[in-house]
Amino acid sequence: MNKPAIRYLVASPSGDVPADADRLDFPLECDPLGTPYRKYFRVILDFISKDNYALLLKVFNERYGTNADVCSISEIIIRTEKHGALFHPASVELMANGNSMKYCLNVAFTETGRDALKKEFALLKTLNREFNFSYIPGAYHAEEMHSAAFLLEEWFEGYHEFHLSRDDKGTQHVKLWEYGKGDRLLSSEECFELYRKAARILVLYYDLTGFRVIYPWHHAAGDFVVKISDDGQVDVRLTTVRGYESFMGTGCNEASPAIALFYFLLHLSIQMRLDKLDGVGEVAWADDLCVEATLAGFSRALEEKDGFGECCGTKQAFLELLKSFGKIDLGRTFIPILAQYEGTSDFTVVRERLSTHVDRLYLRLQNFP
User: Fold this and answer.
1) Per-residue model confidence as pLDDT tens digits over 49-70
2) Nearest to 365 by CA among 303, 259, 294
3) Where is average pLDDT lowest: 8-17, 134-143, 343-352?
4) What mean pLDDT is predicted for residues 7-15?
5) Burial class (CB in 10 A: 0-12, 13-18, 19+), 97
6) CA 280 to CA 222: how far, in whole Å?
7) What is the CA radius of gyration of the chain?
8) Pairing mode, if any, of strands 224-228 and 17-18?
9) First vs last C-alpha separation in the chain
10) Which of 53, 226, 231, 344 fits a 20 to 30 Å CA distance from 191?
11) In the chain, what percentage of residues exceed pLDDT 70?
């Protein structure tokens, strides 16, 4: 039986480059175990090739309605995409019978990473079952082998990371990392849509009665990705679900759903503004446009949420509740939100910017919608 041709690539902003044989014994970035690239690629191949690539072919055949087998595979590309504190994501691209399919494969070597990966698999399965949306990846399979954990899931084709960045004059922009084409700066209109749709996604998955929320997430980690079509349409996806628990803490199930939703909005309005310059630099804070976009996405999602009226009343009544807070009272409500950032690298920036953030949010609430 012929074996498929395998290519190993490294993704870069300027395009894919072949994995350098002279560098395969270098350790993976961010991996405390010092796992070399050679082992990384080898365990990936062992995982995907098990039972004659049965797992990849099952998903492939379900998508295309075909009956491809291992003899149908002409080539497989294993591409290392990035490295994080917990996972080392790769993409796996399978070509068979004139069609191709790209998968996301998260790989974890540390015990903490393996546990987080198993948790993420369960959360993705649960949320995709409970919500009829497609904003988070479909989860295909999770398994452990060779002291590593694997999560095979949907790849969001054509979607890319974005990060706050500064030009040579120190002016802040949002930069799109459009791999294969390089970087480009987004317009104000594109930025507004990006933040609006990211906020909308988080509200759509918010649990109105149990107060569960997708968190933690962070722009610095590239958790949200965006695709901008040639006609200017902006589409956003969330690539990870690390947690889905009540942000009100235990013993708070009797809290008012409207008040809980209000606190969720306050936290969202801050978290949406946080990033790191170019994804790895100092903590960065998005411009005021982000506040307006977050409110717009929040409001739009409320119109779409099942059960909102039953637990929180009309949308107009909820907005009137938000507007009823004076600026001083609104600032006080942020005190427990600020406390959540203590001990993080974001804390100093949030504390320094909180007063002006409250001013901006108060103004936008009074004039919204």
Assistant:
1) 999 999 999 999 999 999 999 9
2) 294
3) 8-17
4) 86
5) middle
6) 10
7) 22
8) unpaired
9) 64
10) 344
11) 98
Biggest alpha carbon distance in the chain? 73
Q: Which of 27-31, 235-239, 245-249 has the lowest mean pLDDT?
A: 245-249
Can you read off the two tokens belonging to residue 203?
């509200």
- What are the beta bridge partners of residue 138? none
Output phi, psi for 31, to 5 deg: -100, 110
The tokens of 313 are what? 């009343």
Pairing of strands 5-10, 73-80: parallel
Long-range Cβ contact pairs of 179-184 (< 8 A, separation 24 or more) = 179/11, 179/12, 179/13, 179/15, 180/13, 180/14, 180/15, 180/16, 182/13, 182/14, 183/13
Can you read off the two tokens belonging to residue 36? 């070399």
- pLDDT reported for residue 131: 94
- What tokens does 361 get? 């949010």
Helix ranges (DSSP H) in the chain: 37-64, 111-130, 188-204, 257-271, 289-304, 308-312, 315-323, 327-333, 335-339, 347-366
Collapsing DSSP states into helix, strand and coil, what is residue 321? helix
Would you give the DSSP letter of residue 180? T
Per-domain residue ranges of the chain = 5-154, 162-366
Per-residue burial over 200-214, b = 16 or more CB atoms within 10 Å of its CB, e = otherwise: bbbbbbbbbeebbbb
In sequence order, the β-bridge partners of residue 213 are 245
**pLDDT value at position 351?**
98
pLDDT at 221 over 60: yes
Q: Tell me, what DSSP letter sits at residue 6? A: E
CA-closest candidate to residue 272, choices 202, 364, 181: 202
**Averaged confidence pLDDT in the chain:** 94
CATH superfamily of domain region 5-154 = Phosphorylase Kinase; domain 1 (3.30.200.20)
Q: What is the DSSP string of 232-268?
A: --EEEEE-----EEETT-TT-TTS-HHHHHHHHHHHH
- How far is 54 from 49, CA to CA, in rounded Å? 7
